[in-house]
Specification:
By secondary structure, the chain is of the alpha/beta class. Strands 6-5-7-2-8-9-3-10 form an 8-stranded mixed sheet, sandwiched between helices. Strands 19-18-20-21-22 form a 5-stranded antiparallel sheet, sandwiched between helices. Strands 15-14-13-23 form a 4-stranded antiparallel sheet, with no helix packed on it.
Length: 759
Amino acid sequence: MHLDNEKDSKEDLLSKSINVLYFSILLFIFTSPILFTKWYYDVSSVNLLKQLSFDLFLISGLIALCHLLSKAVTRITLLLFTLLIFGIQLIRVIEVSLFDQFGKGFDESFFVHIDPTSFEIALKDFPLFVILALLLISVLPILFYKLIKNSNALFSNITSPLVLVGSTLGLLYLTAPYQALNDYSSSVRFAKEAQNFYGAAETLSFDEIDKELLAQLNFPEKYSNRFTATINNKPKNLILIYLESFDLSFTDFGNSKFKGLTPNIDAFIDKNTVLAQHQSTEQFTLAGIISSQCGFTPPMHRGNDSLFGSDYFEGITCLTDVLNQVGYQQEYFGGANKKFAGKVDFLKSHHYDEVYGFFDFKSKKKYKDYHASWGLYDQSLFEEAYDRIEQLSAKDQPYNVTLLTLNTHIPGVRSPNCPEYQGHSEDHSFLNAIHCTDHDLGNFIKKLEDNKILDDALLVLTADHFIFRTRKIKELFGSQLEDQRIVTAIRSPNKALAPKVTASTATYDLAPTILELLGIDISTQFLLGKSAISIGDRSLIVDRHERKVKDAGNCSQENDLYLSDPACKAKIIIELQDYFVQKSQNPLDKNHSFCDVVSGLQVRASNDKSNPSQVVLGNKDILDFVSDKGWSVNRKNREGIYFLTINANGKAGTLKFIDVKDTSSSKKLLDQISNIEEGKLNIMLTNGDASAIFNQSIDSFVKSAGIESVDQIHGGNPFFVLIFANDGENRYKPFQANQEGFVEAVLTKSQCKTLTASL
């Protein structure tokens, strides 16, 4: 018996030792991505010991909780716990990858680029890293599950609650105040940025926008996509080239530390006009294209209509909208997948007649094995674009051909035709990529010149944004990365251009600059953009991503000094711009029939849980895409008011749900109905009994909208109101149930025309 007890004791000790070893390995694997990130990228100031303590408390608490619940929970519940750990680790590994490849963690650019193509490219470019990361992520839940199953070897029925309480207190201590979670948890950082990106966009409103303020800010008094355009001379063609991630500091003109890296671009700058102080205000390709073509800094926020479909600022006047009106044929050539990150949607919605990407060329035999992981080499892109330019030049119609290169996308590729850069002691892939793009661009420009194509064409060379500040790029370029200027140079048949523009310009100034050089006048203004040719002296560049702007304090008009602080001034300009963007999204175009788009809209307001509210257009129930604090709204158990808008193109705009249980619901509804969006169909409807939201002010509104009996609404009867506004005048179409249940209707074309008549 004594020997048996001794044997059991040794086996028990061995089992505990093995499980402690498992726990140590699990803790190391779990923490390693964050520790790696902190060592290399200084994500936050929290020290490594506190991070390790945070993870120790989190893991211990979860295992102790599972041990306590072991008799009450099912195998599926245990599996869910392991999936939770899997998800946390996946987010941590993704964040490390983002810092390694792009020099920053989760932000709007990450969510814009969530796409199977991203994973495919990562697998091609970094197969070993991806495989090791997947193994790391996969091992963790296996260890966690094993520890849960053997939790008796770690915790007894006495120690388990003590560990759980201790872990909870430890987590509370480390994360007090709540904001400290941002220091310890990749998942919290991910969730915060996801909420910012996918969550409901704040509806901006200004009680008074006086002309004096707009004049002080050099801001247009009124903005609309209703414009006229005229050409003052013979139309010139446009060739617009975006160089991927191309800083001015790569060039000798920009004082590059690597001499002779861009000989062809430097020669182009010497012979033509350079915007010497042209700063990038955007951080990824789609935002850079939108800003440079539409004259503002775009709020890249999908809101909770992201699944329904983004309208990509269709109500904003862009360069290509103007060129379309004056008869340009417009074609885009990109080396990458044109569908990646929504490029084709934006380009098509703003009048590019043809959009070509990698898969449009990949079927050609010569590209079968001759391309990079992202797509076409720049050499091939320039060849394809040149062939098309030759064809277009033979026609009488003016054209705009836009190109976007990709060799210099991180980590950089050099096509086989390119010479190696000899100005560095080591063979560096990114320097070779820059040198290669310069080589291929030089050949392209020479062919254009040799064949007289540039005799009547404006050639604009720019970049989509500055280079990502990764660890490797910082090691390569050092302090030069503090300079956010990008290459921007122009060759124009107009020889009167100065060789150097020294005024401070930004990404959003490109479109008005091009229009002035093309001799095209428009009847409206861009929100922020000014022509670099006639801009004069500018003291402020507005960058919505700048930390000083994001952290600006009291910037209200009550603060007498609010316009003297550059950060506050920039913040106010951005808020004004975003307000005008919201108000101008898809206003009713005089050449477009709004009612052709929205007729047939089916709306139901209901307090019947088996037959809940809905808004159906084009076989889609728009209410399926409404979220509240990041979660879909369950219409069967949440009562309140829906407020949404339908744009002139039939896509959803604002999507909001106001819960009856929210103590501020009445104020939220008043704010919404006091800011009716013009040029859109606004819909206000009840789901369930929303009577708790109504107060005297809201009663006045629904009476003015034509609701016959407010008493029935206070009794819980459902209703909905269709609202259309323009130039401050509102028209309403009310529908109200006469008894409990629901009210529904289909919007006919004649009803729609009545709503929009004379507006």
